Amino acid sequence: MIVVMKDNAREQDINKVIARIKELGYTPHPSQGVEKMIIGIIGIHNREELIESLGAYQGIDKMIPIMEPYKLAGRTFKNENTTIKIGDKVTIGGQNIVLIAGPCAIESEEQVISTARAVKAGGAQILRGGAFKPRTSPYSFQGLQEEGLKMMKRAAAATDLQVITEVVDPRDVELVGKYADIYQIGARNMQNFLLLRELGKTKKPVMLKRGPSATYEEFLMAAEYIMSEGNYNVILCERGIRTFEGYTRNTLDLVSIPVLKKLSHLPVVVDPSHGTGKWDLVEPAAKGAVAMDADGLMIEVHPEPYKALSDGQQSLKFDKFNEMVTQLRAIATTVGRGL
What we know:
Elements: E1 2-5, H1 11-23, E2 27-32, E3 37-42, H2 47-54, E4 60-64, E5 84-86, E6 90-92, E7 98-102, H3 109-122, E8 126-128, H4 146-159, E9 162-166, H5 173-177, E10 182-185, H6 193-200, E11 206-209, H7 216-228, E12 234-238, H8 256-263, E13 268-270, H9 272-276, H10 279-291, E14 296-300, H11 318-334
Parallel strand pairs: 7-8, 7-14, 8-9, 9-10, 10-11, 11-12, 12-13, 13-14
Antiparallel strand pairs: 1-3, 1-4, 2-3, 5-6
């Protein structure tokens, strides 16, 4: 259920409605829209009880039932697109497409600073890099952990970039938050509900990657876990799903961009590196994502991909990254976006 307040509703009227919702045992989620204040009501609803209890309150314009299960992530709760501010200079979901770039894993000080300088020069605004690396094999490189976070933060500070990095354990949320401007939830953890709830208790932006077998509804319900704890700063990331095709690492579902934007107000970023698993397919996949109105791209870049400890086969060299961005800018202009 959503309570839509009148344009002239006073703050005291809004507070009374919120207090009554709590008294009834529900969780209110107020959100200030462009024109109106709306209050989402989360819980197993008794519709008649809500209508009878709230119908006479001053300031209420109307009450709307929500049919979709993702109540906070859906368009019924908020119809206008969400924009998410990262630092003072970067906005995801706005007019400009945001470039996120960097190595899959932080390997050394030299590697991360050289990459940060290169992607900054190429047009990236956010530096990506993994310090905690959950891998399919327990014997693969698992990341430098806090030391890697420190390296990445120093590189980002030196190049005026924001930082996004993955958190894999609820116990590490506070630690990672000391260094990251955006938390990343990897595909394997899309339904790690304890982790999602813990991140929901923070106010820092969270980029949620789609699980390899997740439907759109399951994807949005994972976002709902974060938002239900009060953190509405969620970015959806399409990174490909598992299908019968074995040539590419995943099957990149570019149709998810317009579908998710139809179902949800949250911004959508695409990861063509994981979506294809092959460096020579990253550029064409990225072009398609820009043409289909993605709000951002996450690209893996490495100074020497053949020496990379993780995902070298899908990482771009510095010159290839620059060439790709030049091509993407032309497409962005065509579809009315900046890059």
